[in-house]
Amino acid sequence: MTKPLDGIKIIDFTHVQAGPACTQLLAWFGADVIKVERPGSGDVTRNQLRDIPDADALYFTMLNSNKKSLTLDTKKPEGKEVLEKLIRESDVLVENFGPGALDRMGFSWERLNELNPKMIVASVKGFSDGHHYDDLKVYENVAQCAGGAASTTGFWDGPPTISAAALGDSNTGMHLAIGILTALLGREKTGKGQKVAVSMQDSVLNLCRVKLRDQQRLERVGYLEEYPQYPHGEFGDVVPRGGNAGGGGQPGWVLKCKGWETDSNAYIYFTIQGHAWEPICKALGKPEWIDDPAYKTAEARQPHIFEIFKTIEGWLADKTKFEAVDILRKFDIPCAPVLTMKELANDPSLRASGTIVEVPHSKRGSYLTVGSPIKFSDMKPEVTASPLLGEHTDEVLASLGYSKQDIFNLREVKAV
Ligand code: COA
């Protein structure tokens, strides 16, 4: 089956998570992604948190599927020469080195543009160019702190908290993928490549825009009616942490179900959607709440919302999280069980849709990974194993016109 990005050649100069997540997505959609790695070691995640000795770690395999691996020392003159050839033939170069690393290697934007004016050069950095922190190296949790996620996540009486979701890493990679695809479309019109830059701070902040909304609301009216602090607690002058409160106009909370005493995930998320109040009362067996002035409107409920949640927990006490959702779904109430990674890994619906996939790997046997969360009517992205270090070096070099002797010579000087 042909894929939309067939024929797009990408030099994948990425490592760890943010860059690899971006190029993996493009590889699923058909791009020819050549991961350039340092001979002997490769991407640091090949060795990080290994669960099988001598086999690539899951951190690597789950972010580098469908790619080729070319080992190349791009600091050696012979390696630079190979890279230049590759640049002349490629459509996109993606990198997420520390600030200035590509320039120090001799491949500034100006030089890349000179080598191939049609090429798109896409970068992830911790902070955007010109930012007062633009010299900093950044990892996931640093970005969550710098982008506003940490100060607004967690409970009000606890410290700033990091989300398990990779808001700084994979999220930035997804932003970059959108930038690359946009630049590729732009190139169709202009014939020119361009530089695409995404910072981790900006990408986190983009996902926290409702908190910037709340900052402005707080400054105008002095309180935030959907936060647990309202109306009994104090508001300061910055958006507080709101625990598990809903982020929109719908109050919600994580509620205990049967078995919570021994199972730390026996919970559901329950949302009190304004117009669903009547079905909620019916589902809970509380018809008297429907027209009671103390319960009828969102404003009336808010001062005693936790009392309402307590009552709902009473209703949930003899129901598992799955039984509860099966009842509530019939009343059109937005809710879900709190699912564990074990439950997700074995979820038949996620397996059937290709969101959880099992990938055969020559060294590991097989491993589970998350497949494309984007579904198409005319294409089913297949996930293939991540490459072994240097698995495609000979193939890529041959495609660039290097003879067997040339490749031997490059190996002799440890350039590949
Ligand atoms: N051949 C030769 N040298 C290579 C090479 C290759 N194939 N690939 C990389 N290198 C070199 C680079 O040129 C650079 O050398 P230099 O610092 O002497 O110029 C070095 O390896 C890599 O440096 P750097 O990217 O800074 O690695 P690091 O391990 O010190 O830092 C990060 C890691 C992730 C903190 C840093 O890359 C970073 O801040 N990246 C931008 C933000 C980001 O993506 N963060 C991670 C999100 S998962």
TrEMBL record:
EC number(s) from the headed UniProt entry: 2.8.3.16
Domain of life: Bacteria
SUPFAM superfamilies: CoA-transferase family III (CaiB/BaiF)
Pathway: Metabolic intermediate degradation; oxalate degradation; CO(2) and formate from oxalate: step 1/2
Transmembrane segments: none
Any one of the GO BP annotations: oxalate catabolic process
Molecular function via GO: formyl-CoA transferase activity
Catalysed reaction equations from the record: formyl-CoA + oxalate = oxalyl-CoA + formate
Translocase found in the keyword field: no
Residues the entry annotates as binding CoA: 15-18, 38, 72-75, 96-98, 104, 137-140
Family membership noted in the UniProt record: Belongs to the CoA-transferase III family. Frc subfamily.
Subunit comment: Homodimer.
Protein's recorded name: Formyl-CoA:oxalate CoA-transferase
Organism the protein comes from: Paraburkholderia bryophila
